[in-house]
Amino acid sequence: MDSIEHAIQSVLPQLQREKVEAVIHEFETTLGVEGPDDLQFIKEADISHLLSPIQCRRLINSFKSHPKSPQPITSSPVSSPSSSFSNEPCTSPLTSPQGHSKWVDGFQVQWDKMRPALQRAIDDGNRPEPGDRRHMVKVIVDSMREHCLNPTRKDCTTVAKAITQMYPGSFLDKTDEGESIGCGYFTLLQQLKTRVEYVNRDNTLSRLRRPRRSDTSDDDQPPPPAKCAKIDSYGCINWQPQEYPEGETAQSLEEKRKEMIDIFTQDGPKAAERGRVKELMTNTYSKQREDINADPSPSILDISKRWPFLLSWKLLLSHFTTLTGVDLYTRLKDDMDKKG
């Protein structure tokens, strides 16, 4: 344990010999420390009964900043070191699942650029004020964009995870009872990614993905222009039916659409309760989707003129159920009963 004793005395040279021996004894007998590599997992609560809060934080900061061998960040709560806000940027050991960019491995969170109020909150293990937190996200994203104009979601995940695990008291997603919610860093991840998308809103060059190229393609041949592709998105299961209902044609569906316009002109929105109107709306679903998905996209006013009953509450819900497979009214009612 000579190396551990040296590590303690190098940080707290004025600490009395008896205190040093008591701390080492606590490491060996109670905490199970077997070598210098284990020191980075020590928490303030483990030695708070032996040292003052400042001494604890200085010691833990030294263990975290100078580990003997590289270790991934664990989910164990780590107290915020008071000396973490120095004039030099704090380097967070960033680890994430495969797929993140190489620059993330050496990314540094520049805590010295944060507001003093946020620095005090983290130092005390408290939640930062919303405004201070937004400013922190802005500073971090600006720093990330020095390496990559459009950091990926995995890049943001790496940074959010590291920050949350380093300062769980300030950034961990948790309930009022103190229980961790999900992965614990989802909220910070969303803030980082949302900020990235916001700053790139007018920069199409950084937002567009490069088209894939075949390994056998001619290097002298310019890549094809990027273009959007029609896909079923946002959980839709029936985005655009490829076939009309049995026995129906484009002409027959158009006649049904005109029939509904005549009914609406004569009786107004109240006719949406009629069984005939419901039947017509069900049969013309594919035609409705053709109009909605048209290019250029029609306005709501245009849709309301061609399909006036589509703005009816019940028929709109029916259309949504066919589109997504979700009974929205029932789902909303069940969720309100569970969470309301």
Tags for this model:
3 domains; single chain; two-stranded antiparallel ribbon; 16 helices; 340 residues; 1% strand; mainly alpha; 49% helix
What does this entry show, briefly?
The protein is an all-alpha fold and 340 residues long.
| Major sheet attributes | 2 strands, antiparallel
What low-confidence regions span 5 or more consecutive residues with pLDDT below 50? 67-98, 226-232
Whole-angstrom Rg? 30 Å
User: Strand order across the biggest sheet?
Assistant: 1-2
Inertia-based shape: elongated
**How many strand units?**
2
Structural class: mainly alpha
Would you write up a description of this structure?
By secondary structure, the protein is mostly helical. It has 3 domains: 2-65; 83-204, no CATH class; 250-339, no CATH class. Helix content is 49%, strand content 1%. It has 16 helices and 2 strands. It has helices at residues 2-11, 17-30, 44-47, 53-65, 116-124, 130-144, 153-166, 168-171, 186-199, 204-207, 250-267, 275-283, 285-292, 300-306, 313-324, 328-339, and strands spanning 90-91, 108-109. A two-stranded antiparallel ribbon has the order 1-2. Helix 6 (130-144) packs across helix 9 (186-199), helix 7 packs across helix 9 (186-199) and helix 11 packs antiparallel against helix 12 (275-283).
